[in-house]
């Protein structure tokens, strides 16, 4: 079995009066994992850097351009039973303005802004829920023992 890194996960949030809210997207019924709620995900193209994939997928799936963008200090594993490999998924986080206009692609049927607790309830995989915890702790707590790496977006 191979271990590869061919996918990204990008959590989008906005700041509200009572904390932060995460954008979740519902997968279209004709897609793999129909009806599943998730953050932005996508496959890394040959020769593409993971962070560029995340920015591209955010734009393609939501129409959004982040005002700030970070690499998180964790990766999530995914096992492909069809191809017998484990993918280590790079996790990114993007901040957008509260009044951002969402334009979802045909891959998704709807979207919701949710507080961290509700977002975690709707996510299927433990690693995704852990990412919400890490991101929430980082952006809502005064003291934190590491820094996310912020990447400049144009």
Instruction: Name the helix and strand elements from N-terminus to C-terminus, one letter apiece.
Output: EEEEEHEEEHHE
What are the segments in which pLDDT stays under 50 over at least 5 consecutive residues?
none
Main beta sheet: strand number and arrangement? Answer: 9 strands, mixed
Structural class: alpha+beta
Q: Quote the distance from N terminus to C terminus.
A: 39 Å
What would the principal axes of the Cα set say about the shape?
A: globular
Approximately what portion of the residues adopt beta-strand conformation? 35-45%
The overall pLDDT average reads: 93
Return the domain count: 1
* CATH architecture annotation name: Alpha-Beta Complex
CATH-derived topology: Nucleoside Triphosphate Pyrophosphohydrolase
Give the total of beta strands: 9
Name of the CATH homologous superfamily: Nucleoside Triphosphate Pyrophosphohydrolase
What's the CATH C level? Alpha Beta
Total helices: the number is 3
Radius of gyration: 15 Å
Helix content: 10-25%
Short description:
With 154 residues, the chain is an alpha+beta fold. It has a single domain (2-151), classed as Nucleoside Triphosphate Pyrophosphohydrolase (Alpha-Beta Complex), CATH 3.90.79. It has helices spanning 50-62, 116-122, 126-140; strands spanning 2-4, 7-16, 19-27, 37-38, 40-43, 68-80, 85-95, 108-114, 149-151.
């Amino acid at each position: 079995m191979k271990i590869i890194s061919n996918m990204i996960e990008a959590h989008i949030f906005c700041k509200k009066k009572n904390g932060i809210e995460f954008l979740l997207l519902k997968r279209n019924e004709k897609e793999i994992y129909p009806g599943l709620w998730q953050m932005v995900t996508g496959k890394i193209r040959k020769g593409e850097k993971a962070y560029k994939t995340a920015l591209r997928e955010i734009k393609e799936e939501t129409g959004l351009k982040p005002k700030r963008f970070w690499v998180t200090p964790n990766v999530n594993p995914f096992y492909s039973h069809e191809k017998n490999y484990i993918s280590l998924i790079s996790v990114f986080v993007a901040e957008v303005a509260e009044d951002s206009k969402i334009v979802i692609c045909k891959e998704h049927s709807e979207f919701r802004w949710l507080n961290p607790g509700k977002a975690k309830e709707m996510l299927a995989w433990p690693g995704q829920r852990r990412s919400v915890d890490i991101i929430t702790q980082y952006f809502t707590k005064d003291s934190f023992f590491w820094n996310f790496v912020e990447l400049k977006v144009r």
